[in-house]
Write a structure and sequence with these properties.
The protein has 291 residues and is α/β, with parallel strands linked by helices. It folds into two domains: 85 residues; 154 residues. It is 47% helix and 15% strand. The chain is built from ten helices and six strands; from the N terminus they run αααααββββαβαβααα. The protein starts with a helix and ends with a helix.
């Protein structure tokens, strides 16, 4: 049964790679057609994730030990690790294809937006870490109460009243970037929906513009005014209602973390490695979502 799942995964990767991804990942060199193919590399890495092998070394050893006869041209670990990094854009495209394929419920237009940290270095090393510094910097995660060095994953997800939200859009930012600034760019082309968001997305001018130009209603909990000690009953009730609608996106983030260990990126050493790390996990999560 497990072997059938691996075959299905490999066939799915080949289908998407041959139809779309190959055009964006061609390498103009004499080694454009290696014996260990890009499709095999992508499929084996995602298969490793599905078996809780969350770093490249453990994934490589797992494939070599248990599926070596399936992949006789498996290269050395160093070459395999380099291939994963070189295929960063392929993983990104595959994740996008699978994300778009999840499908949304057309019967309603309620969405949630939020972000989660992806930690390359924890609090103690956050000030001196330099890995993948084109993408990463030091930021603060309020939900964890900690400073960290890394990036944030932002997600817009459709509410499902009886299950986890369905992710619709995903983007990355540096850890220090303000969620509101990222949200403005991320939601620029979104139309005709209602979004439940945290207080950090509160901005009257932007809310008015989104409603007028995009027919998008943005609902956030009520902020205390300067010097205000008590909030009215209606404001407390509204804030509680918005927060209760937003809560399931934490379940989505926790589920992705449980499936992929996406927040633990301490072994990443390059920007391409970080892109491959994140989007291989998003691709795997999308494959699991409806299964």
């Amino acid at each position: 049964m497990r072997e059938i799942k691996l075959i299905e995964l490999y066939c799915a990767v080949c289908h998407h790679y041959g139809n779309i991804i190959v055009a964006e990942t061609q390498r103009l060199s004499n080694n454009f057609c290696p014996k260990f193919t890009d499709e095999e590399c992508i499929a084996t890495f995602i298969w490793g994730l599905s078996n809780q092998k969350f770093d490249v070394k453990r994934c490589y050893d797992f494939i070599k030990d248990f599926y070596g006869d399936w992949f006789p041209e498996l290269p050395s670990y160093q070459a395999y690790s380099n291939r994963i990094c070189n295929l960063a854009e392929a993983f990104k495209m595959l994740a996008g294809i699978l994300l778009n394929g999840l499908g949304l419920d057309t019967s309603h237009a309620d969405f949630i937006i939020d972000s989660m940290p992806i930690i390359v270095a924890g609090s103690r090393r956050s000030s001196r870490a330099t890995a993948a510094n084109e993408l990463c910097d030091k930021g603060y995660c309020a939900s964890k109460g900690m400073y960290y060095y890394g990036i944030k994953l932002h997600s817009l997800a459709q509410c499902n009243w009886s299950s986890m939200p369905t992710p619709s859009l995903i983007t990355l930012s540096k850890a220090s970037e303000n969620d509101l600034s990222v949200g403005k760019e991320m939601l620029d082309s979104v139309r005709n929906i209602r979004i439940f968001a945290d207080k950090c997305y509160k901005n009257k001018a932007w809310e008015g513009l989104m409603l007028t130009m995009n027919n998008v209603t943005i609902l956030t909990p009520v902020k205390h005014k300067k010097g205000q000690e008590y909030m009215s009953f209606s404001d407390r009730l509204f804030s509680s209602a918005v927060s209760s609608v937003r809560q399931p996106i934490e379940s989505l983030f926790n589920w992705i973390q449980e499936k992929t260990n996406i927040q633990a990126a301490s072994k990443i050493r390059s920007s391409s490695g970080l892109i491959a790390f994140v989007f291989a996990r998003i691709a795997y999560a999308c494959l699991c979502f409806n299964s």
